[in-house]
Amino acid sequence: MLNQVADGVWVRQSEWVWSNAIAVRGEDGLILVDPGIGGSDLNQLADDLDRLGIPVVAGFSTHPHWDHLLWHSRFGDVPRYATAAGARAASDARERGQRMAAESASGIPLELVGLVTPLPADGGPVPGEIAEHQAHAVGHAAVLLADRGVLLAGDMLSDVLIPLLDPRRPGQVDAYETALDRLGEAASHVDVLVPGHGAVAEGAEVTARLAADHAYIGALRRGQEPVDARLSQDWLSGPHRANLEQARRR
Length: 250
Ligand SMILES: [Zn+2]
Hints:
Elements: E1 3-6, E2 9-13, E3 20-25, E4 30-33, H1 39-52, E5 56-60, E6 80-82, H2 84-92, H3 94-104, E7 117-118, E8 129-133, E9 140-145, E10 150-154, H4 172-187, E11 192-195, E12 201-202, H5 204-221, H6 237-249
Parallel strand pairs: 4-5, 5-6, 6-7, 10-11
Antiparallel strand pairs: 1-2, 2-3, 3-4, 8-9, 9-10, 11-12
The structure holds zinc ion (ZN).
């Protein structure tokens, strides 16, 4: 089911890690941001879009992790964009992404995984402002739709996932803090925040998400075990330990 969160912005959540597929109405049609996850999700999203009656004109991937690089033929053969760094990383790691997609969910069209190209300098059909930063993944971008009062945050500012540092790059604690500052600035223009995973935040909850992630990163910086309610699920303790080790190596 598509949930309208602002004028011309719709969200569909998957069961798989509460992933949010986002449709944004642009000048010529819809831009699909991070559509996912399983084949039945993608089909239902296509049904929902048919009912909406607005054609899909482009895709946008917030970052080059497999669950943000998916597509379905029913969305059409349209350009799919990412930041330049994100597009490069997606093509370098395409086979790995296909493998992880196949292992993680069923019915994903594997031949369409990761086919993204660099967004033109003027943003092309993607509305709003791209806020690229160095946290979580190479070429990660948030999309600020200031005129709709919405920030699409990718894998940042989730209420279900802890901040996940990029294990492949040094200096991630600093990078994460810088990214949170950048997103905080962007968030000051909005009242709705759509994370890649978890609940859409509104109003005071947006500020609370920023504060929670600042607190988490602050604890890592001090070499402490962050206390975070999002760690209650066992499967998150692995990434949490990896974050702490990464912070200690900095
Ligand atoms: Zn993700």
